[in-house]
Specification:
The complex is a heterotrimer of chains A (128), B (641) and C (350). Chain A is mainly α and 128 residues long. In chain A, helix 1 runs antiparallel to helix 3. Chain C has ten helices and seven strands. In chain C, helix 2 runs antiparallel to helix 3 and helix 2 runs antiparallel to helix 10. The radius of gyration of chain C is 26 Å and the shape is elongated. Classes of the chains: A mainly alpha (128), B mainly alpha (641), C alpha+beta (350). Chains in contact: A-B, A-C, B-C.
Amino acid sequence: MSDTHATETLPGATPVHDHSHDAEHVAKHVKGYLVIGGVLIFLTFVTVWLSYVNFDELIGGHGWNFIIAMIVATFKVSLVGAIFMHLKGEKWTIWRFLLFTAFFVAGLFLLTLLNWGDPIFGTRHSTH
Amino acid sequence: MAAPITSNAHDDPHAHGHDDHHHELGFWQKYIFSTDHKIIGIQYGLTGLVFLAFGFLLMTVMRWQLAHPGTVVPGMGPVFASLGEFLKQHPLQDNTFDGWFWLRAVADQFPGGVMSADGYNSFGAMHGTIMVFFGIVPIAFASFGNFVVPLQIGAPDMTFPKINMASYWCFFISCVIMVISFFVPGGAAKSGWTSYPPLASVADSAFWSFFNGQTLWLTGMVFNITASLLGSVNFVATIIQLRAPGMTWMRLPFFVWAQFVTAFLLLLAFPPLEAAGIFQLMDRVAGTSFFMPTGLIVNGQPAHWAGGGSPILYQHLFWFLAHPEVYVLILPGIGMVTEVIANNTRKPIYGYKAMVGALFVLAFLSFIVWAHHMYMTGMGATVAAFFQTTTIMISVPSVILITALLISLWGGSIRFTVPMLFAAAFLPMFGIGGLTGIPLAFNAVDLYLHDTYYIIAHFHYVVAPGTIFAIFAGIYYWFPKATGRLLNDFLGRVHFFGSLIFINGVFAPMFLQGMAGMHRRWYDGGKIYEGLSNATVLGRTGLEWNTVISYSAFLLGVAQIPFIINFFWSMWAGKKVGRNPWDGTTLEWDAPSPPGHGNFDKPLTVYRGPYEYSVPGADKDFLPQTEAPKTSEKPLPTTTH
Amino acid sequence: MEIPYTASARPDTGLYNAKLGIWLFLASEVMLFGGLFSGYLFLRLGAEDGYWPHGLLNVPVGTGNTAVLILSSVTIVLTWANLKMRNFALAQRYLLATILCGVLFLVVKLAYEYPQKFQHFGAFIKKDAAHEYEAYLGNEHLKERGMPPRYEISGHLEAVEVSLTGDKAALVTLAEEHGLEVVEPPAGEHGHALMVEGKADREKPADQKKGVSPALAEKIAKVPGVKIEAFEVALDPANADPKNPDNDRPHFLYRHATDKVALLHAKDVQWASSFAPKHSSYFAVYFTITGLHGLHVLAGVLVMVYFYFFGIEIYRKNPEHQANRIEVVGLFWHFVDLIWIFVFPIFYLL
């Protein structure tokens, strides 16, 4: 049955020729993968070190350690995503639904947290 | 008013001889552990129909209790009463297994043949769970999606046939677990289909840590969620990857679009419920307190939990799924109705592109409206205002969908076939369900109506005469494709008119009861409050309407008998038809009826949009998508690429 | 019948089926872990002051495990690169390295980190009794520093003091089954009838005492006629020296309990248990998320073991197909790594 899907008979489709994953191309990337691995491990130690610093005292306010640790973690995660998972240069089809997913996750986080931010007067047991 | 059924011109008697590589599979591989999307679709459909009937049965028992509180349930009551008498000789000892534990669980719900409050709660929770997760989603999404989508896009099968099979069997395991849960001490889950903690976290905890209704419910749901995850990955991948040559996005039948969006909803909305389920499972089994607040008192004793959790968290995670779930229930239905309406009005769908756009807007918004189910939790005004706004916004795309379908009827020469009858009835029924939801979007109104029968009526109008009618339309429409035989027309009409009349008899009075303030969870139908108010609605008190509703429900059950007879009788003795009994345009009608393994017996190329009916200048009133364009015809603007 | 685009990409989408499939699956996984993490954040922000602990996990071990997972991410991507370069033997070696990293991660988690938690003991003191335990909690000091109060006292449970209204025999049997003994407390010490402690613990130096496991303490409490009156706890550094500024935010190195022993009266204790999931919201989320993450690691390892032993046939038939399969399992594996990159700071460090 695969002949019904003969690739050259797809009207309206623009064939994408993708060379980025050819053998010689891949060989060039190997060194990059090692470097990124090194950077990630280095950043792990940076995260540990940062947690010893009390940013709330340095900056003033609350939760700075959390925010800074999350910024570092997000940077690490984007390295993993972009390089190891080849999201850099990935097809738009995949990007599109990943962006929606990211939006919905953000909605799940923020909208549930509204629950703490907007209590009916006198119903909260503690304040930060 | 007989339907004009024509046999198909290009029916090919040698259709099955084509596939040379076809080797015979044994019975088990062919019909039980099959990887063929059509068999899996039928498996899902049959399982779903069984559960739909089971869920209906639970409801009829509850309806008896509401109409005649405290009386012996006819039929099953005396059986359970004598069973209970017998079991008194074998009392339960220290929560240990004995030969009778599974019967005792059932008999305990009906002391003396009368439904107990626990039994009512249990049946109510399981009615909701079964209808939503084991009835409608498996049929509307998994069954029709599996059977029809690959055919409509011209694919030989799903992209991942083995995962597809795994999906069904995961679902099957979840079904088995849910059925077993009726037979453990304490009976099935009884904290509502929503399983709100802390009630759900403490319910049945006196019994074995694992074999109790609520824990089995959670376990079953984890399997159910896994099944729908595997299914929805498959659906999206299939629609993106396996469209036949020429099947561009704007040539997809609307049903495929609806399934595509539904699959995304399941894919992205179900996991937070899985997270909530895992949390609740931990609360019950490992003694954590995700949802257990500090200082909780159960039965006058401080609860043995560390505390510090939040029951609201569960509601957030639950409704993050369960609002998109509403669209999972309705979108495949709208998709099926669209196919049937286009085919039977013999004209293109009005506003195809607007409908597709509306689908996406609907899906997108459905992720940010969930907390309108939670106004009763006492959320703050800002949060409520946000969710009120998005909820009102989401009614716009819904109205676009139903308006487009209504306008599609205009000017058509409608064939009132049985599928079309159901599809036509779907429109006003879904309309009533949808429009009565608009007042509920507003916090202030919702606080009054939320725990009344008004809500019950509202969402049942959407899913019962809404989605279930769409499902019936789909069954009557695609039955000939699955079996090669038509369902009987006369029995179909009897089924339709019976269902239409009695389903309104069930749900319309609930609006009256609800607005009169009748609470929706009274297990005796409000009998203990009898005499407090003698206010009548349309000449009857709220309690008297209970009787009307209940007998309508019983008659609704009777009205399904012609369908059941028709279904099995027609499978063997129905009128044989060719490939295209309805003169349809979409690709599934190019395949043999029933299609063999691999679906199509010749290569396909798609040249036109999905609904080219009554094209000016064409020599027949429908042009299949595979028909190459001729110079004389003018392509329709809405359906060309 | 064959499904098209299993090994080669569909021209108009540029994707082969499995790649699209795994990304859809991962999108769903993002929502699953999103739900779990949002639960974490919701509970943490909603937690009462002093009820979200710091520094109860072993940071060096956690850091090591993070490095192991990152290393395995590098090796799996090198496996894929070598298959692309048609270098099967080297690819197999990298795949094996990835599998070993995964196994190492699991072993550390299951054989070292988790069991430790179940031996540790923590008790939340009732707020109205907290001032009596000021020497261990240091709330005056914390208040001066503008920090939230502390209500938990943790450490190694050395003994429980019980009062007895019924028969002693059941208690003695239970104790002896677990290598403990029931003794009279030193004369007039606390006025409780009996003590349950490790055999000959009195003669041993502090770091060799067997003590009572927290799970056993719960069993003792259930013996008919037995009531736990007090817990004797060898304190963790933070409770032993609560005024030391180093302990304001307890340090993230695992340390043994000190020699300092505190007596916690059961009537003052709101909730006590081992560092099991039921201990607090913190450990509940920790065990749930790391447990689920561990299941993902296990699943990845199993798939890779399968590919390691049965990949050769597919490679011979179509090397590109095998490279695709490794790419797909690699994507899953990177995702598992990616989740851990968030898990590590939020549980170990913050």
